[in-house]
Amino acid sequence: MTIVDEPPRLPRVVPEWHESGACNLFPELDFIDAKGPAADACRVICRACPVRLQCATDALERGEPWGIWGGLDRLDRKAVAAELGYPAPAVMPEHGTNSRYAKWGCKCADCRAAHTLYESERRITARRKAKARGLWVSPLALDRPVRVGRHLLGPGQLLLPLPGLPPHHAAEPRPSDLDLAA
């Protein structure tokens, strides 16, 4: 089998052990969407299967979210995965989505681009809502370095003024990025 960076959802190459599986003798049973008595029948067949261990291990390594593999359904695989350090069985979103980046930690270029787009749209929406409610305050930019406690704030750093307090003497008002875009 070929080695890939990310475990595939379905094997790209059918493993050698697959042809020896007892499930191949029972094509009328649905091992992927088995419920009730059919699920019990699938488990019985798996108990007598000569490649049960390879089947279960392969499903655990892939984080397979569907069906009965090696006698283990999704909940069984989830418990075994947590105990032995395999990925939890779950349906992953497509590449190029923010949820794949944020929830699954995918750092591919498509997922990073989707996350960047999502964040920029979220910030623009939040600024518009804050402005509509009268909460938006234009930031101030420092014109020279200022020491605040142990921290040195550099020129050009933005400060958000607090309501009711006078602005810092080293700060000058800066036009808002939202005002420039509008």
UniProtKB/TrEMBL annotation:
Family: Belongs to the WhiB family.
Cofactor note: Binds 1 [4Fe-4S] cluster per subunit. Following nitrosylation of the [4Fe-4S] cluster binds 1 [4Fe-8(NO)] cluster per subunit.
Source superkingdom: Bacteria
Organism of origin: Amycolatopsis heterodermiae
HAMAP family: WhiB
Gene transcribed to yield this protein: whiB
Classification via PANTHER family: TRANSCRIPTIONAL REGULATOR WHID-RELATED
InterPro entries assigned: 4FE4S_WBL (IPR034768), Whib (IPR003482)
Keywords, comma-separated and alphabetical: 4Fe-4S, Cytoplasm, Disulfide bond, DNA-binding, Iron, Iron-sulfur, Metal-binding, Transcription, Transcription regulation
Function in brief: Acts as a transcriptional regulator. Probably redox-responsive. The apo- but not holo-form probably binds DNA.
Domain 4Fe-4S Wbl-type as annotated: residue spans: 22-79
Cofactor entry: [4Fe-4S] cluster
Binding residues annotated for [4Fe-4S] cluster, in chain numbering: 23, 46, 49, 55
Name of the protein this chain belongs to: Transcriptional regulator WhiB
Record PTM: The Fe-S cluster can be nitrosylated by nitric oxide (NO).
Localization: Cytoplasm
Major localization listed first in the record, in broad terms: cytoplasm
